[in-house]
Write the structure tokens for this entry.
Amino acid sequence: MNSFATTAQFETPSAVRRYVSERLPSGEPTGAPRRLPGGNLNVVWRVPGANRSLIMKYAPPYIAADPNTPLAPSRLLMEARGLEALSPGGRLADVTSPAVRVPRPVDVNETLPVLLMEDVGDVPSFDEWLRGADPVGRNEGASVLGERLGQFFGRLHATTCTDATFADPFDNRPMQETRFAVQYRGVADMLATGGVPDAEALGARAEQLGKALLEPGRCLTMGDLWPPSVLVVEEGIRLIDWELAHYGRPLQDVAHWLAHLWMQQHRAPSDAFAEAVKAHQDAFLTTYADALGGAQAVLWDDAERRDAAVHFGAEILVRAVGPFQAGYVYEGLAPEHPAVQEAVATAARVLRSPEATDLLSGAPRRR
């Protein structure tokens, strides 16, 4: 019987090591586990082993970085379900390739819950890779990564398009409710913080989308496609953090990624860096559309394109003037800072006229 039941018991290396030894008798850790930084939602450890190291994730019933904010621990079971489906032998194994795949799940403790999975290594996230890449080949490398990522998500969305057998296993309503409360319902206040006069009307538009996204949608989505979730390895890409996976709407992957690409360009340290991000974006959109094939007509009707623009604006706001500003490109900047004002203005513009913004033709440019 497992002797672990509380968050405190996963706060020390010795406790983590003992847990892994209990769950995997043949995989005795060979050294002290190390807690990884940046794990806002969960408690995350790297556990060394003789043949392989593992990642251990524990999901407390709140945000690990903010114990005062409740969060459904079922999020980790949703991640495990996604990893299993996308691993060899899983229902979605054909979506992946050696160039783009997810970490392999090793053990799932549904009671706590705790997930043990493959450690893909101490490798850079997409934005870290961009900053460290050789400028000579950066555009080409960014474009290749865009092609691979676009193909993966096009395949994921097309393969699961209107397949109701994915709806119940990936009904992640608790996490969608959290997103609604923190992101969509907060748009009016975020716009007001940025000094937008019609904040209330625009906020109502975002809130309407958030309510719609609580319901099952039309395809399986990852739900948290941003640079820290895209790890760049020698073979290509490893996609981590599937706690927000949901049978929902493709906009929560595509518009989400495009919003982050816009912000990466907006806060780029150089014109060359911004050009590399744009090369990635163009390649992503082209291969995504190709991989969708006939599913594009079903998944991306006029309403989806309009709503994608609303999400695009909401994601920029939550990073520029909202609760997720810390740790990202606008960290520490006051609402009146010119960069923040420009981000808010872009978000407000697409929220005012979402029907005029077709993200599949390219994210809005700065004005």
